[in-house]
Amino acid sequence: MGGVIISEPEPGSPIEDLPWVVVFQSLDEAWDSFTCGPYERDHAIALAEAVAVEEDDVLAAVEPLLPALEPADILADIAELREVNEAEADEEDDDEDSDELEESEEDTDEESEEDEEEAEELEITDIEVPDADEVREGMARVVNRLLADA
């Protein structure tokens, strides 16, 4: 039997009503991962579990499909995930000696400054980014293609 990882939103979260996808990957890297969907959450979970029961080397991750309309939306999500990750790391570091904690924070600050310098060098200038309305129109075309194939 394979495994299933299910993203659990807070009860009553609007994320529950979003479309959901299932990312299937090989536990032993015997094949490339792929994504299926969009589905309603319950259907995504049921499909993921059914496949994981049949195949030993499959890991299925059930996740919400977030509608990002602009690069700023994606960057905000990344920043939020980084904050959560840093908060979790800080909780783990609380158990360590304070000297070790200070060294870790200094290293993180130095890495953060280096990352910011690299990001400044990689400015997007020649890429035409669609505006939010164009992205919505594209999403509508994708949904219509999905419905036409059904």
Q: How would you characterize the overall build of this protein?
A:
By secondary structure, the protein is an alpha+beta fold. It folds into two domains: 3-64, no CATH class; 71-143, no CATH class. Helices cover 53% and strands 16% of the residues. The protein contains four helices and four strands. The protein has helices spanning 41-54, 71-93, 98-121, 132-149; strands spanning 3-6, 20-26, 34-39, 58-64. The chain has a four-stranded mixed sheet with strand order 1-4-2-3, with helices on one face. It is globular, with a radius of gyration of 20 Å. The two termini are 30 Å apart. The mean pLDDT is 82.
Short descriptors:
alpha+beta, DUF4259 domain-containing protein, 2 domains, four-stranded mixed sheet, 4 helices, 150 residues
Query: Low-confidence runs (pLDDT<50, min 5 residues)?
Result: none
Number of helices: 4
**Number of DSSP-assigned strands:** 4
Spatial sequence of strands, sheet with the most strands = 1-4-2-3
Mean pLDDT: 82
Query: Which percent bin holds the helix content?
Result: 40-55%
| Helix/strand class | alpha+beta
Largest sheet at a glance? 4 strands, mixed
Protein name: DUF4259 domain-containing protein
Give a short overview.
This protein has 150 residues and is α+β, with helices and mostly antiparallel strands. It has helices spanning 41-54, 71-93, 98-121, 132-149; strands at 3-6, 20-26, 34-39, 58-64. It contains 4 helices and 4 strands.
Ordered list of secondary-structure elements with their pairings:
Elements (H helix, E strand, L loop, with lengths): L2 E4 L13 E7 L7 E6 L1 H14 L3 E7 L6 H23 L4 H24 L10 H18 L1
Parallel strand pairs: 1-4
Antiparallel strand pairs: 2-3, 2-4
